[in-house]
C-alpha cells in the first residue's frame, strides 16, 4: 500500500474523496478554512488545498482500476511514466501542517529572504529544510513539497 496523487475533474475533489471512501478506499482531500466576504454576509468556508488533486492510499495492482473508474477521477498523476508515489511522511506533514494552523518557527537568522535555506525548528515540519521561494511579508514563507511540486504558505514565528 502506498499513497498516490489522483487528478480529478475541476471542483470535484471532495465528491471524489467521498466516493472513494464509500467503496472502501482510503482517500485524503486536504482542506483549509477561509473567511469569505460577500456583499450581504461573511462566512467561513472549506476550500480544497490542492485543486484537482486527491490522495489515495491503495495497492495499485488490486485497487488502481477501481480508482480510475470512480466518477470524477481523470487519472493518476504520473512521474517518469509511473503513478507518482507520495511519501507517508509528506501526507502526515500536510495533515499536521493544517492542524497546527500553519504556525512554524525557524532556526537561525530572523531576517529571512528569498533564496535562503531554512531549517524548521518547531511545528509539523520540524527538522525539515526548505528553500524560501517567496515572501508575502516578513512573517510568511512558501515551502515546497518536492515530489509534487506544490508549495505551502507558512506563518513564521521568530
Explain the overall architecture.
Helix content is about 20%, strand content about 45%. The chain has about 160 residues and is α+β, with helices and mostly antiparallel strands. The strands form four sheets. Strands 1, 2, 5, 6 and 9 form a five-stranded antiparallel beta sheet that branches. A five-stranded mixed beta sheet has the order 12-11-10-14-13, with no helix packed on it. It is globular. The N and C termini lie far apart (about 40 Å).
SSE order and pairing:
Elements: E1 2-8, H1 13-22, E2 26-28, E3 31-37, E4 42-48, E5 53-58, H2 60-69, E6 73-76, E7 78-79, E8 82-83, E9 85-86, H3 88-99, E10 103-107, E11 117-122, E12 129-131, E13 140-145, E14 150-157
Parallel strand pairs: 10-14
Antiparallel strand pairs: 1-5, 1-6, 1-9, 2-5, 3-4, 7-8, 10-11, 11-12, 13-14
What's this model, at a glance?
The chain is of the alpha+beta class and 158 residues long. The protein has helices at residues 13-22, 60-69, 88-99, and strands at residues 2-8, 26-28, 31-37, 42-48, 53-58, 73-76, 78-79, 82-83, 85-86, 103-107, 117-122, 129-131, 140-145, 150-157.
Strand and helix order:
EHEEEEHEEEEHEEEEE
Main sheet makeup: 5 strands, antiparallel
Mean pLDDT: 79
Structural class call reads: alpha+beta
Please count the helical segments: 3
Helix content: 10-25%
Strand content: 35-45%
- Indicate the low-confidence ranges by residue numbers: 102-109
Principal-axes geometry comes out as globular
Radius of gyration: 17 Å
Secondary structure: number of strands: 14
Give the N-to-C terminal Cα separation.
39 Å
Amino acid at each position: 500500500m502506498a499513497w498516490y496523487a489522483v487528478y480529478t475533474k475541476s471542483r470535484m475533489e471532495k465528491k471524489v474523496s467521498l466516493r472513494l471512501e464509500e467503496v472502501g478506499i482510503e482517500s485524503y482531500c486536504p482542506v483549509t478554512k477561509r473567511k469569505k466576504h460577500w456583499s450581504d454576509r461573511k462566512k467561513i468556508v472549506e476550500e480544497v488545498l490542492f485543486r484537482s488533486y486527491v490522495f489515495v492510499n491503495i495497492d495499485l495492482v488490486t485497487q488502481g482500476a477501481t480508482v480510475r473508474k470512480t466518477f470524477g477521477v481523470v487519472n493518476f498523476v504520473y512521474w517518469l511514466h509511473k503513478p507518482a508515489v507520495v511519501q507517508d511522511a509528506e501526507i502526515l506533514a500536510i495533515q499536521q501542517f493544517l492542524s497546527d494552523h500553519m504556525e512554524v518557527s525557524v532556526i537561525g537568522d530572523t531576517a529571512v529572504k528569498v533564496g535562503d535555506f531554512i531549517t524548521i525548528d518547531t511545528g509539523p515540519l520540524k527538522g525539515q529544510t526548505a528553500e524560501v521561494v517567496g515572501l508575502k511579508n516578513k512573517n510568511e514563507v512558501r515551502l515546497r513539497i518536492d515530489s509534487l511540486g506544490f508549495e505551502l504558505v507558512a506563518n513564521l514565528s521568530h
